[in-house]
Amino acid sequence: MAFIDRGDASVFYQGAGQGPAVLLTHGFAATSAMWAGQVAALSGDHRVLVWDIRGHGASQADPDPAAYTEGASIADMAAVLDADGVDRAVVGGLSLGGYLSLAFRLDHPDRVAGLILADTGPGFRRSEPRQQWNEDAQRTADSIERNGADRRAAAMGVDASAHRSTDGLVRAARGILPQDDSRVIESLPSIDVPTLVLVGEGDTPFLGSADYLAAKIPGATKVVIPGAGHAANIDRPEAFNAAVGDFLARAGW
Predict the structure, then answer these.
(1) Which domains can be identified in the chain, with CATH numbers?
(2) Judging by DSSP bridges, how do beta strands 195-200 and 112-118 pair with one another?
(3) For position 151, what pLDDT does the model report?
(4) Closest CA to 17 of 38, 32, 31
(5) pTM passes above 0.85
(6) How far apart are CA 189 and CA 203, in angstroms?
(7) Which pLDDT value is given to residue 149?
(8) CA-CA distance, 96 to 147, in Å (whole number)?
(9) pLDDT for the residue numbered 50
(10) What are phi and psi of 9, to 5 degrees?
């Protein structure tokens, strides 16, 4: 485990195993610990990297709201690869982590050998639903500020005490969750690397998103995880790991 000095942030990451690299990014209110089952399953044949988004887990950043943005998160992902000496990786994530993985591919296509998109969405083409999403992000921040993060963290399989403070989560909700444009969703047809779309059978809000991702990304494979909800990798780790392992093998990674 290590910390990367990013100037306005100290970003926690850790790696396990040797071989082709896989970079996994957690969902909002979770931490890199949510990937423990995947690290154990994949690190026999791969270098598996996990990290904590700013405001989450052990990572911390300047209290200035400007330190919490989608762009800063994408740059942090590149910094994790750099710190571990990795030029190219299969990049994946769950929920917010999946969206950031799509955004990372858009900014750093040469560093992405494949995509794993779990229980996530591609953003919004129209401004109205994007604005609704952004308003929901602000309500999420307000709720955590008032009531703490116990409920949201538990839904992602972690204890709220794993975060340095709720203040970081509030800043992340206000700065990283909102979306400014439609560039990610519009980029889907241009994705030219192997892509796996995963979704929990019971993750009703994201079933349609999974269908959309699989339809728009050329050659994408979609797998529905039986008996799983939003945190599909935690709810049904064996099925999730089997799908990821098969995907990496077929991708020759």
Answers:
(1) 2-250 (3.40.50.1820)
(2) parallel
(3) 83
(4) 38
(5) yes
(6) 24
(7) 84
(8) 21
(9) 98
(10) -160, 155
Instruction: State residue 160's pLDDT score.
Output: 77
What Cα–Cα distance (Å) separates residue 234 from each residue in 37, 108, 170, 230? 8, 29, 24, 9
Helix (H) or strand (E) holding 114: strand 112-118
Question: In whole angstroms, what is the distance from residue 125 CA to residue 228 CA?
Answer: 28
User: Which tokens hold the place of 157?
Assistant: 């399989």
Residues 6+ positions from 245 with CB-CB distance below 8 Å: 41, 42
Query: Count of CB atoms within 10 A of residue 29's CB?
Result: 29
Output the CA–CA distances (angstroms, integers) from residue 144 to 43, 136, 166, 171, 182, in the order listed: 34, 12, 7, 10, 27
- DSSP per residue over 80-110, as a string? HHHHTT-S-EEEEEETHHHHHHHHHHHH-GG
What gap in Å lies between CA 40 and CA 221, rounded to an integer?
Answer: 23
- Contact criterion met (CB below 8 Å) for 74 and 107: yes
Give the separation between CA 234 and CA 219, rounded to whole angstroms. 26
157 vs 64, residue with greater confidence? 64
Q: What integer is the mean pLDDT of 92-109?
A: 98
Taking only the tens place, the pLDDT of each residue in 1-16 is: 799 999 999 999 999 9
- Reported confidence tier of residue 162, pLDDT bands at 50, 70, 90: confident
